Amino acid sequence: MEFRDNKAIYLQIAEYVCEHILLEKWQADQKIPSVREMAVTLEVNPNTVMRTYELLQNKNIINNKRGIGFFVAEEAVANVKSYRKAQFMEDELPIVFRNIYLLNIDFEELQTRYNTFVKENF
C-alpha cells in the first residue's frame, strides 16, 4: 500500500479496510487480519493498525471478539457508507466545488461525465 503524505496513516488504513468491506472482499461476520498480520502486510507499526481498528470499532464497522480477533460488523456496509459519505462531504466536496467554480464547469457537463464514468466502470 502506498501512503500519501496529506493524511494520517491510520486513516488511510481505515480507508483500505472500508474499501475491502464495500468491495465485499470481507463480508459481515468474517474475521479480518489481526493487528500484527495487517501491520506486517502494510509495513507499519502495530500501534498504527490498533489505532485504526479502534476507530473502526467506534464507528461500528468492525467488532472485537476477545481472544478470537476482529470481525466485520453485521451492519458494516451501511456504517462504512455513512462514515465515508460524511468524510467526503466535509473534506473533499468543498475542494471539488471550488474547482468547479474556478473552472466554470456547468452541471450538465458534470452529469454527462458522471454518467459515462458509471457506465464504463460499473
TrEMBL record:
Keywords of the record, alphabetical order, are: DNA-binding, Transcription, Transcription regulation
The record's section on PROSITE patterns has: HTH_GNTR
Q: Which residues form the signal peptide?
A: none
Cite the SMART domains for this sequence.
Answer: HTH_GNTR
Enumerate the spans annotated as HTH gntR-type domain: 7-75
Q: Which GO terms describe its molecular function?
A: DNA binding; DNA-binding transcription factor activity
**A UniProt-annotated Pfam family:** GntR
What is this protein's name? Transcriptional regulator, GntR family
